[in-house]
Amino acid sequence: AQSVTQPDIHITVSEGASLELRCNYSYGATPYLFWYVQSPGQGLQLLLKYFSGDTLVQGIKGFEAEFKRSQSSFNLRKPSVHWSDAAEYFCAVAHNAGKSTFGDGTTLTVKP
Amino acid sequence: DTEVTQTPKHLVMGMTNKKSLKCEQHMGHRAMYWYKQKAKKPPELMFVYSYEKLSINESVPSRFSPECPNSSLLNLHLHALQPEDSALYLCASSPLAQQRIRFFGSGTQLSVL
User: Fold this and answer.
1) pLDDT for A27-83, tens place per residue?
2) Distance (Å, whole) CA B19 – CA A59
3) Which of A44, A94, A107 sits opposite B43 (nearest CB)?
4) C-alpha distance from B80 to closest chain A C-alpha (Å)
5) Of chain A residues 3-62, which have a CB less than 8 A from chain B?
6) What pLDDT digit, counting tens, does each position of A1-15 carry?
7) β-pair partners for A51
């Protein structure tokens, strides 16, 4: 069965510091991987996606993620966090056109 | 227009009420979705519409009734809800060429009293 694990429930970083959010997946075939961000009371916004090709993908708002098949991971990174990045982050794997499996999310707090 | 618009943003209803949630997109997407999201949890898929036809129903109770009147509009009719149905209801859409991607609306925060 497909699954997504985000090991960190809550992460706190200082503004300007680097960020890495972890995501591990379990999927039998080539995964289609996503990171979404959700601000309080809002919907989810797509940050970036990996379908194939270059394993380092760039997204919006200065985020990037690296797909590592050998580690079944798709970690999200940002070199310098801004206060506006405080939000809930969800990793997801899409296993067919209709369904996606989301991780439980990681809450990011940014200290001034 | 690159948005998925949901109305209302907030809704409070009693257990005997009938209400509807509305979702609209003008991006030409032919797949549309309803999700339910509890606080601090990931969204849970409820329904999928493809070409205005219901293609997936994730065993959702019949007190939730979806409707897709046309390719731009998706409704969720609510009747006799329970307090545990209180949640953020999210609508999403996908382009045909990339149906694994979701474009989400901002949601309707529903409270059932």
Assistant:
1) 877 789 999 999 988 899 999 999 988 999 999 999 999 999 999 999 999 999 999
2) 38
3) A44
4) 25
5) 32, 34, 36, 41-46, 49, 51
6) 789 999 999 999 999
7) none
